[in-house]
């Protein structure tokens, strides 16, 4: 079973029934047990054409399968090193099953070496073998937060390497998004900069109470900030009006404008002239590869893991996981995330199995 959305209209979606696939030589079949569904996945859809996200899991013309992060089990295998019953973590379509051409198999991971995935960023093609199944909540937290936390870790690391472009304040737009919260937690714990959350009036109370931000302002209220202070913007939302407000207020005091996501996917507009620096896209897979080249893969994972536990411990105080099972429930969950109706303290875990 596949959940597909219109490539040019994310509000169109359908469920396509299909038999369980059979593996060919060198392939395995994974059954997707559960996956996270957050605003991050809407970014995958919004940038599906521009950044190639539709190419991971092809569908019929005009339709796409939104990628999600989650856990799956091997249910059929033509690869000796991967047994039926193995648990894996990685990048999946919104489907019940995925056929993977498993290569570069090690005791801890393997790679989907299917021809159509070869040109795509390697970080998305690697699957982690899970030696011992964790508790349900631990798996769900990993599915929801780990990809977003890794992006936040990379932004924090990159900004620090740039000495924050000479800025002493970081404004994070769409501050209630999970990636924004993770970034704020890292900055507040590790860096000597002011951390400002920019969010909607409805989410301001939550953002102000998680303990990661020095200051919270609402959209339309950026003029309350000191326009002369050297500032970096990290924008998770992509809302052109918010970009215009921040750039217009700070002007040349804005030292860098970092575009990360598109939680406000309908307000994204490319190529708009703005005061101050031109917004630059932060593409996390490129930074993953850069740091793996610099540090080595094992050191990279150690450094991410070193901050991961602290963040998940604090997130456990505010994060509510809501599980949606079955095609109808998944469709309703997708609509809620797409329309921005999910409270900031919640995150959705989905399974197409009823």
Number of DSSP strands? 17
Shape-level CATH architecture of the largest domain? Alpha-Beta Complex
For the biggest β-sheet, the strand order reads: 3-5-6-9-8-7
* End-to-end distance: 12 Å
- Average pLDDT value? 93
Quaternary form: single chain
How does the major sheet shape up? Answer: 6 strands, antiparallel, barrel
Percent range of helical residues: 25-40%
Count of the domains: 2
Strand content: 25-35%
| Structural class by SSE content | alpha/beta
State the main characteristics:
354 residues; 2 domains; six-stranded parallel beta sheet; alpha/beta; 8 helices; globular; Quinone Oxidoreductase, Chain A, domain 1; Rossmann fold; six-stranded antiparallel beta barrel
3D architecture notes:
The protein is built from eight helices and 17 strands. It is of the alpha/beta class and 354 residues long. The protein has two domains: 2-133 and 319-351, Medium-chain alcohol dehydrogenases, catalytic domain (Quinone Oxidoreductase, Chain A, domain 1, Alpha-Beta Complex); 145-286, NAD(P)-binding Rossmann-like Domain (Rossmann fold, 3-Layer(aba) Sandwich), CATH 3.40.50. The chain has a six-stranded antiparallel barrel with strand order 3-5-6-9-8-7. The chain has a six-stranded parallel beta sheet with strand order 12-11-10-13-14-15, sandwiched between helices. Helix 2 (136-161) crosses helix 3 and helix 6 crosses helix 7. It is globular and about 65 Å long.
């Amino acid at each position: 079973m596949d959940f597909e959305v219109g490539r040019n209209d994310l509000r169109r979606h359908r469920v396509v029934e299909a038999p369980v696939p059979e593996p060919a030589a060198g392939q395995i079949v994974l059954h997707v047990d559960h996956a996270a569904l957050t605003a991050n996945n809407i970014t995958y859809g919004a940038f599906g054409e521009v950044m190639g996200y539709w190419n991971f899991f092809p569908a019929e013309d005009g339709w796409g399968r939104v990628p999600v992060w989650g856990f799956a089990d091997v249910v059929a295998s033509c690869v000796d090193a991967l047994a039926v019953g193995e648990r894996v973590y990685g990048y999946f379509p919104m489907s019940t099953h995925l056929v993977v051409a498993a290569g570069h198999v090690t005791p801890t991971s393997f790679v989907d070496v299917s021809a159509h995935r070869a040109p795509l960023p390697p970080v998305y093609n690697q699957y982690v073998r899970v030696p011992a199944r964790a508790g349900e909540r631990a798996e769900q937290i990993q599915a929801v937060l780990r990809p977003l936390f890794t992006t936040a870790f990379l932004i924090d690391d990159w900004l620090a390497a740039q000495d924050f472009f000479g800025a002493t304040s970081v404004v994070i737009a769409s501050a209630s998004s999970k990636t924004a919260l993770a970034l704020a937690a890292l900055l507040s714990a590790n860096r000597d900069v002011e951390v400002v959350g920019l969010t909607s009036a409805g989410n301001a109370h939550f953002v102000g109470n998680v303990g990661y931000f020095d200051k919270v302002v609402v959209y339309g209220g950026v003029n309350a900030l000191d326009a002369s202070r050297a500032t970096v913007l990290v924008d998770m939302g992509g809302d052109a009006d918010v970009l215009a407000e921040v750039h217009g207020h700070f002007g040349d005091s804005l030292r860098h404008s970092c575009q990360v996501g598109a939680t406000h996917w309908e307000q994204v507009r490319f190529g708009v002239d703005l005061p101050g620096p031109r917004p630059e896209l932060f593409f996390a897979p490129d930074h993953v590869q850069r740091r793996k080249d610099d540090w080595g893969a094992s050191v990279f994972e150690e450094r991410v893991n070193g901050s991961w536990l602290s963040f998940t411990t604090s997130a456990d105080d505010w994060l509510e996981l809501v599980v949606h099972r079955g095609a109808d429930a998944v469709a309703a969950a997708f609509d809620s995330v797409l329309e921005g109706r999910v409270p900031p303290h919640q995150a959705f875990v989905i399974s197409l199995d009823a």
